[in-house]
Amino acid sequence: MTAETSQTLDRGLRVLKLLADTDHGLTVTELSNKLGVNRTVVYRLLATLEQHSLVRRDIGGRARVGLGVLQLGRQVHPLLREAALPALRALADDIGATAHLTLVDSTEALAVAVVEPTWTDYHVAYRAGFRHPLDRGAAGRAILAARSGRDGDPGYVLTHGELEAGASGAAAPLVGVTGIEGSVGVVMLCDAVPERVGPRVVDAAREVADALR
């Protein structure tokens, strides 16, 4: 902590991070131990965060992340889109296919930014807001592959016909972006993804990750 920072705000943010890292919530005592402060301080922090719907307490008294965090999260998507668009535009026009940034939303993959190529006669219609299961389609599978951390993984995933008949996909996960699980990919009308597309998607994912850091 420095003279320019707020100790109370710092503690409140640490509470939110601790709660975000657990699925079953934390008690006042557990938070007190993890923060190294007394229970009275924790009670005050929780009461303030509850007023803003950032924290809720269940019947058993365990504190959990509140729905107010989701409202804040919705405002993040426009910022992510803005940061990702240059790399997505370059990818779409280089490959001649629809490029997208996809993030994890609960158990689904959610397309938050989509760029169509400017020079092709036809391409796959793929819109921001499109959702699909994480275990279907290249975008979701790339995220799951990053979670598993398999050795020998080429860094990208290729699929065909999993989300739309006749369409193939290639995607690579975002790596090294704290607090964000996502992937960058392309979707195209073809039976087999050209060999150069996989490595090019990996490069685009790296560019997007750098822009988000």
TrEMBL record:
Domain IclR-ED, residue spans: 68-213
Superkingdom classification of source: Bacteria
Keyword flag Transcription regulation: yes
Domain HTH iclR-type: 6-67
Family matches, as Pfam families: HTH_IclR (PF09339), IclR_C (PF01614)
Keyword Transferase: no
Keyword annotations from UniProtKB, A to Z: DNA-binding, Transcription, Transcription regulation
Name assigned to this protein: Helix-turn-helix domain-containing protein
Originating species: Streptomyces lonegramiae
